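Researcher: Here's the sequence for the chain we discussed earlier.
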Amino acid sequence: MKNAGQQNLWITCKSVGPETCERIMDTISDRLRIPWLRGARKVNISILPPLFLLPVFLRVASWHFLLGVVVLTSLPVLALWYYYLTHRRKEQTLFFLSLGLFSLGYMYYVFLQEVVPKGRVGPTRLALLTCGLFLILLALYRAKGNPGYLRNPASNDRSPSGSQTECLIRKGPDKTKGFPGADLSGGLNNRTPKDEAKGSCRTAAGSPTKVKEDWCARCQLVRPARAWHCRICGVCVKRMDHHCVWINSCVGESNHQAFILALLIFLLTSMYGITLTLDTICRDRSVFTALFYCPGVYANYSSALCFTCVWYSVIITAGMAYIFLIQLINISYNVTEREVQQALRQKTGRRLLCGLVVDTGQYSRGFLRNWHQFSTLGTHPFHHPAEDIV
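Model: Thanks. This is the structure I predict for it:
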């Protein structure tokens, strides 16, 4: 009867509630499996859209200049819409990780198929670009590792790895199985005075100085300074910076350096690939001029596809360059992105350079000392003064 009622909704073209859509997507995701050695394995449905849509969109965009403008404008808008949709629902998604990895692979494939045969890229340049691609993947692998999960001292379970935390993202009453006290309803950006009033801070038992420490009611543990609970991963992370959708994991004390390194290598490799491509399809022009004025680029399909992929790479690179710039500024002032958002909400931070810099003044010890502390993250515990402990 329930299925018949749902079919009637489709036939009569009545609106379907969000819960119905979620059940439909959960059913499709549960039944979508691939054969494997030890039985069929489930496939996360959020991985699939980039694999099919990205090549189609880029090839359609290469048919005409106006189509390219429409497609390359709509792609970032759709990605931002999906980001806010999943971020509002506090769900993990592999969409952006799949999009990033497949974009790297597809851009490299187009480069080999369309740019290299034109004879302008020598073996040395190709080897350098290939080396950059492998370094990106290696740095991403390191950044995808444990960001510094905090484990309940009363539990004998190990801290969850990246793949284990993905298993925590399940709806319903069993969504916190496998990690005692973890609750996805926790907040990445919800540290408000209201939470403090509920007793999220407790006095450390047996402490002679009675220093107030931060208590996580969801993970049932006392958090050190600058640690926070990620309600997307469902665990507490030491010196948590933010939850990055591009690696589908948190950026914390143990993987922040690898995250910065991955961004740096990606920017250098991407700009190098863009330069080689434009030098091949728009000869005798500077890179900046060729981006906006390249006569005859749509005369044949090969050069049009390369030009479209260049602009797609420029859009992605510009977004990553902005993230990289913000990270460098935050490190220079020894502030995490989580602390920046909290300071902006509570209006306790000092905004500089048109809002690019938010200085909380709590942990900053000067430019050189801030970078020295960042360079030693994860190697040894960094002791803060008693007034720094929240």
